[in-house]
Amino acid sequence: MAAFGSFALLIALALAAYNLFAGVIALRLIATGQSARISPERLADTARRAGIAGFVAVTAAAFALVWSVFNNDFSITYIMEHSNRALPAPYKFAALWSGQEGSLLLWAWLLGAYGFVLRLLHKTDVKLYAYAGTILAGVQLFFLSVVNFAAPPFSLLKGALPDDGNGLNPLLQYPEMVIHPPMLYLGYVGFTIPFAFALGALMMRYPGEKWIRITRGWTMVTWLFLTMGIFLGMHWAYAVLGWGGYWGWDPVENASFMPWLTGTAFLHSVMMQERKGMMKSWNVWLIFSTFILSILGTLLTRGGLVSSVHAFAQSSIGDWFVAFLVIVLAVCIFTYILQRSHLKSEQRLESLVSRESSFLFNNLVLLAACFVILWGTLFPILSEYVQGTKVTVGPPFYNRVAIPIGLFLLFLTGVGPLLPWRSTSLRAIRRNFVVPSIALWATVIVCLAVGARPWKDGVFDTGNFYALVAFGLSAGVFTAILSEFLRGAGVIARQTRRNLFSAMYLLTRRNTRRYGGYIIHIGVVIVVVGLAGAAFNRSQESELGLNSTMAIGPYTLKCVGFTQDSNLNYDSEYALLDIYQNGKKQFQMTPEKRVYLASQQPQTMVAIHSVLSWDLYVVYEGTNPDTGQPIIKAFLNPLVSWIWAGVVFMVIGTFVALVPSLVPATASLRVPASLGAPTEPALRGGD
Amino acid sequence: MGAADAGARFNNLSHRLMCTCGCAQLLGECNHVGCTESGRERNELSAAIATGATDQQILASFAAKYGVTALAAPPTHGFSLVAWIAPLAVFAAALLGTILLVRQWSVGKAQATAQASSPEMDALREKVRRETGSGTDGGF
Predict the structure, then answer these.
(1) Which domain holds residue B64?
(2) A604 contact residues in B (CB cutoff 8 A)
(3) Minimal Cα distance from A602: which residue of B?
(4) Contact at 8 Å (CB) between B21 and B37?
C-alpha cells in the first residue's frame, strides 16, 4: 500500500502541474486571441479534467494511508508513530491528521475535493471557473510538492519492523478530535476557493459583480466550517486539557482566529460591493489576506515558529511555507497593481451615520482585532530578533488589548442593523435606539443588584468590569435585533393574519440573507454572554479521602470511592464523587486519570456537569505522593453552556443565510406609514 | 496593584506568570500531569507573597530567576513597550483615517449630488430601480 500511495501522490502532482501549466497557456491564448494547434478552450478543458483526475489520485493516496492504519502496517513510519493495534477504530481514522505528513495529505485531499466541486460547476461561468481552477491548481501543486518531497506520508521505516506502534497522542484520543481537525481544515482549505475566484476575477478584469456573489457563497460555507472547527477546538480544550478554560490565546488558537476575523470582515463588506459597488479593492485584499492568514496559520502550526500546546506536528517544512507565502503575496501585489483600475468604487459614502459607515467601522474593528492577534503572536519572534530575548505574549496581553476591541465590535453589531442605508436623521436614530438602550441599562442595573460588580474586595476588577459591559451590551444588541424581527413580523402578521411566529418564519424566508445574518448575530451575543461568565469562575482544590467532602458554590462533593479499570489501550483510575445540593444527592461524577499503554503517557479525563447557569467541572489530579490521598480540583464555571448554545445559533443562521430567499410579494405588503415602518423595508427583501 | 489578601494576590500573580516547563500555560492554570516546574514555582510564589514583597518585586524576581519568558505579558519598558503601543497606535490611526475618509466622501458626495438632485433625476432613478429590480436582494 505504501508504494501505491506514493505512486498516487506522484500522479496527483503531475496532474496538478499539467492543470496549472495547460490552464495558464489556455487562458493566455484566450486573453491575447492568439491561435494555436489546439483550441485554447479545448486545452482549458483538458486542464479542468486533469484537476478532476488529480482529486481521484489524491483520494487514492488518502485511502492508502487510512487502509494502512487500519491494517496496522507499521512498515510505514507515519503509521508506526501515530497508531497502535489497540487504538479504537475512530481514532485510527483520526491518525490521518494527527501528524505532520498525514495532515498535509488531508489538506491536499480537501483542496482536491473543493476543486472537484468547483470544476463540476464550471458551466456557471466557464471562463471565471477556468481562472479559479488554474489558480487552485497552483496551490495544489505546492501542497502536493510538500507531501511528495518534504513530508512524505508513506516513507518506510528503517531497521527491524516493530510489533506495535507508538500510539496516538493521548490528548487526541477524544471524540471531538475525530471531527474538529477536519472542520478546521475545511475552513482553512476552503478559503482557497474565494481566493482563487478573487484573483481570477482580477486577472481577467471580470465585468460586473457576479464573481463577488459566487465568492460570497463559497466564503460563507468555508466560514461556517471554520467557525465550527474553532468552537469544537474550544470544547476539546475545555474537556481535555483540564485547566477549566477553553481559550488560552495560544498561537495555534490565534492562527485559526485570524482568518476567521478577516473572513467575517469580508462577509460584511461584500454587501457594500454588491449593493453600492464600493470597497472593491478592500474586498479583494480581505480575501487575499484571509487566504494568506490561513497559510500563515499552517506555517505557525506546522513550521515550529512558535511554541504551542496544540502544535502536535512540527518539522522543518516552515521554509516551504515561507517561500509559498512570498510567492502568493508577490502574485497578489503584482496582479493588484496591474489591474487596480478595474476596482474603482462606483459610489461613495453619504453620511458618517449610515449602514455603509457601520460596515466600514465593523471592518476596521475586525481588522484591528486581527492585527492585535497577529502582532501578539509574532511579537515573541520579533523581540528575539531585536533584543535577543524572547518575551511571552500571553492571556494578560490579549485580555487587556483585544477584549475592549471585542466589546466595541459587539456594540457595532447592535448599532449596524438599526441604521438605514445612505443616511439617517437624528429623530430616526433616537426612535430606533430607545428600546435597546433601556435594555442595556436595565441589564447593568440588574447585574449590579445581583452582585456582578466591577470591584472585588474593594478593588476595581477589570475582568468583572468587562463582564458587566458585555452583559449590558449583549442585552442591548439582542433587543435591537429582536425589535427588527418583531417590527417586520408584526407588519406581515397584520397584513396576512398569521400568528407572530409564522410571520417571523415568512419574514426570514423572504430575506434569508438579512435574517440569517441576524440569527448569527444573536448567536454571537449568546457566545459573548457565555464568555463573560468566565469573569466569575471559581475553583477549589482539595485532597479528598474516602467519605470526605469539599464544597464549591451550591454543590458539595463527597468522595464515595476509587476504582481502577483497564483495557487494551489504557489503564485508568476513577474517583467516584456523589454531588449534593441542599443536602440532597443529585448525581454522581467520575473524573478519571488514564495511562496509555503504547505511549506510557498519562492523561486526565475531566468530568463535567453542565446546566444553563454553570458547569461543575471536576479534575482528578492523581494522588499526593506524601499522603497517598487523591487530589480533586473542582471548578464552577458560570454560563459556559451558553457558548455552545450560541454556536448552534450561528450555524443555524449561516444555513438560513445560504438558502435562497423567496420572491417577495411587495405589492400586497406595503406598510402603512401610521404603523411605523421598519428601519428598512424588510418585507421587500432588504433594500 | 496587589489584591487585598494573600489568596487573591496568589490568584492574580499566578495568572501573570507562565509555567516554565515549556507547556505554554499560565502558572495558575498549568495542571498537566507530571509537570516538574509548576508545583515548585507556585510554592515560591506563595513564599514570596508571605514575605510581604510587592507584586512588582515578585514579578521582577521571577523574571530575574527564570528569564523574561516567565512573565505572561511583555514588560512595559524597553523594546517590549512596543508590544503594547503598536496595537493602540494602529487602531487609533485607522479609526482617525476612516473618520476623515468618510467625512471627505460625505462632503464630496454632497457637492456632487447638489446639482444632480432634482425631481426629474429622482423619478429617473426610481424607474431604473423598478426596471432592473435592484434592491430586492439586499444584505442584512
Answers:
(1) 3-70
(2) 31, 33
(3) B33
(4) yes
Render A426-482 in DSSP notation, one character per residue.
HHHHHHHHHHHHHHHHHHHHHHHHHT--SEETTEE-HHHHHHHHHHHHHHHHHHHHH
Residues from chain B contacting residue A308 (CB–CB below 8 Å): 24
Residues of chain B found within 8 Å of residue A457, distances taken between Cβ atoms: 3-5, 8
Q: With an 8 Å Cβ cutoff, are B138 and A271 in contact?
A: yes
Work out the mean pLDDT of chain A and round it to a whole number: 86
The count of domains in chain B is 2
| Distance (Å, whole) CA A20 – CA A44 | 10
Q: Which residue's C-alpha cell is 515558529?
A: A305
3-class DSSP state of A517: helix
Angle, helices A126-145/A318-339, rounded to nearest 10 degrees: 160
**Are the CB atoms for A185 and A108 separated by under 8 Å?**
no
Asked whether A98 and A169 are in contact (CB, 8 A), the reply is: yes
Sequence ranges of the domains in chain A: 1-168, 169-344+358-393, 398-535+645-681, 537-640
pLDDT digits 0-9 by tens, A318-362 = 888 889 999 999 999 999 998 888 877 666 666 666 777 788 888
DSSP string, A589-615: E--EEEEETTTTEEEEE-EEEE-SSEE
Instruction: Give B-chain residues touching A459 at CB under 8 angstroms.
Output: 1, 3-4
**Residues B84 and B25 grouped into a single domain:** no
* Contact between B106 and A515 using a beta-carbon 8 Å cutoff: no
Write out chain A residues lying below 8 Å of B102, CB-based: 349, 352, 357, 360
Same domain, B26 and B58: yes
Nearest to A397 among B29, B74, B108 (CB): B74
Record: contact A375-B80, CB cut-off 8 A: no
Contact (CB<8Å) A309/B135 = no
Residues B96 and B65 both lie in one domain? no
CA distance A253 to A394: 12
Same domain, B65 and B82: no
* pTM recorded for the entire structure: 0.87
Same-domain pairing of B89 and B47: no
pLDDT tens by residue, A476-502: 999 999 988 898 898 888 888 888 889
Whether A248 contacts chain B with CB within 8 A: yes
Max Cα–Cα distance, chain B, nearest Å: 83
A 341-380 → B contacts, CB under 8 A: 348-352, 357, 360-361, 364, 367-368, 371-372, 375-376, 379
Under the banding of pLDDT at 50, 70 and 90, the label for residue A667 is: very low
Here the CATH number for the domain that contains residue B38 is 1.10.8.640
Residue B50, min C-alpha distance to chain A (Å): 19
Examine the domain organization and report whether B43 and B93 are in the same domain: no
Residues of B in contact with A602 (CB under 8 A): 33-34
